[in-house]
Specification:
It is found in: Cell envelope. The chain contains 19 helices and ten strands. It is an alpha/beta fold.
Length: about 475
């Protein structure tokens, strides 16, 4: 919920990814109530801006005198990067009025406008009040962004926008079939985050097998440092390192089956092995005492203070914890530790995907303008500006040359290079928000990691939750294509 981030948190969030919302930020609002109204149509809509003339400089045919309204989630990434991009739009279309606003209350501010048929032209649908993407898509509330993706890129007319994006961005915006409903602007690297300085102080390298992980945690314990901590109040953070471990051990098809809500998907041997591995961290006393009672900020602060070596998180953690991470911390991220040499995918297999979901409403008065603003943001200059200001990669595949990358960002770029094509993108957190957060996260993994349920009991419980969701006709179901 980057995306970043908002989404990942429980109350105040930040990017809780979807849901996050509900989102990369996240949420405690029940997913359906959230959107029930938003999805209910209503209103006669607003007058659409007349199309402008398509030219090489205006490939989407923006009406150069029509107002363009942009509402941004005001979270961990701030609003300056977006304001800077609106200035470029204004320069390109000097006769147009650009209306820009930033808020943390996306759903309560914008749901009434969706109902009345007069939504803004571009929305960063993130944070704790994120509108449920699955519902928006299912109720035909969003414009298909294919025209944007097939337009010439802002920098190079010979390249389409889609050809300038990082792996998985286009697919993440799809739900069923070819239309692309969402453009995730931030690019989040998920994994196991740590201090290279702390690792060096233990005379250790990052563990590639679980036996090495347990040995390192024992070594840390003897020095008075816990092996792990996590957001105990929001245990849906645990999957940021656990899901890619499952994919590494069993292959990406195991995660696809979980996302597809297939019968017995959670009973796969790779799931069992990884749950048992994580449970061993609890059993051997390698989890920081009190972790189940900590929220994301408290756990990140304890980790930054050297009380624990590892924390599962996303790349927004560098910006979000900047005020508590020591200057010499040497922040780093690694792809998850695997089990052993029998794993189906190599060490370096990582979860990386889009965060900060941008949408253009189907009833927007100036759809072309909303898409053009996104085209501007996907330029090299805007991407570099974003990365320099918020310590996060963007969806634009590049944009880091000449920027003095922070330690975490540099480590994330290196992790992506090491992963190559072995990048996983579990969709549970944006397809089924409540299932992922409240059920798999809080009721399942949270109970197991606190020692209140065994791996076998947890797998049985989570499979039951997944089966309930699969049979629930009130929610739209999605499948990997």
């Amino acid at each position: 919920m980057g995306s970043t981030s908002a989404a990942h948190h429980g109350g105040v969030g930040r990017r809780d990814l979807i849901k996050r919302s509900a989102a990369l930020g996240l949420i405690s609002v029940p997913a359906m109530s959230l959107l029930s109204a938003c999805a209910s149509g209503g209103g006669d809509g607003q007058d659409k801006a007349k199309a402008g003339k398509k030219t090489a400089k205006n490939p989407l045919g923006v009406n150069d005198s029509a107002q363009m309204e942009f509402v941004l989630f005001d979270g961990g990434f701030g609003k300056e990067y977006a304001e800077d991009a609106t200035k470029i739009y204004q320069k390109d279309f000097p006769k147009a009025k650009v209306k820009f606003a930033a808020t943390q209350k996306i759903q309560s501010t914008l749901q009434p406008r969706f109902n009345q048929g007069n939504p803004p032209d571009l929305i960063d649908n993130s944070g704790a009040e994120q509108m449920d993407m699955g519902v928006l898509v299912g109720k035909n509330q969003l414009a298909d962004l294919t025209p944007l993706l097939d337009a010439p890129s802002y920098d190079d007319p010979k390249k389409k926008v889609r050809d300038t994006l990082r792996p998985g961005i286009v697919e993440m915006g799809q739900f069923d079939g070819r239309p692309v409903w969402i453009l995730y602007y931030a690019y989040t690297v998920y994994g196991t985050w740590y201090s290279q300085k702390a690792l060096d102080s233990l005379d250790a390298t990052y563990p590639e097998t679980w036996d090495q992980m347990l040995a390192l945690c024992e070594k840390a314990k003897k020095k008075g440092m816990a092996g792990w901590t996590y957001a105990g109040k929001y245990p849906y953070y645990i999957p940021f390192s656990l899901y890619p471990m499952i994919g590494k051990v069993g292959g990406r098809q195991v995660l696809d089956a979980i996302d597809n809500l297939e019968p017995n998907a959670w009973k796969h041997p790779a799931v069992k092995a990884c749950f048992e591995a994580y449970y061993e961290l609890y059993k051997k006393g390698y989890i920081l005492k009190g972790t189940p009672g900590l929220d994301h900020i408290q756990s990140q602060t304890a980790w930054a203070k050297g009380k624990a070596l590892f924390i599962p998180n996303g790349s927004w953690v560098e910006n979000e914890s900047a005020n508590v991470i020591p200057a010499d911390f040497d922040l780093a991220v690694s792809a998850p530790t695997g089990l052993d040499g029998s794993d189906k995918m190599p060490f370096g297999t990582i979860w990386a995907s889009g965060g900060e979901p941008f949408i253009v409403p189907a009833k927007a008065a100036n759809q072309a303008g909303g898409m053009e603003q996104l085209r501007v943001m996907l330029s090299e200059a805007s991407s570099k500006n974003f990365t320099a200001k918020v310590k996060s990669l963007s969806a634009y595949n590049g944009g880091t040359d000449g920027i003095d990358l922070t330690p975490g960002l540099k480590s994330g770029v290196a992790a992506l290079e090491k992963a190559g094509s072995n990048v996983l993108n579990p969709r549970m957190q944006d397809w089924y928000v409540q299932l992922q957060k409240e059920k798999i996260g809080v009721s399942g993994l949270g109970e197991m990691m606190a020692g209140r349920a065994t791996p076998a009991e947890t797998i049985k419980k989570i499979q039951g939750f997944a089966d309930e969701a699969a049979k629930d006709t009130s929610i739209k179901h999605y499948k990997h294509q």
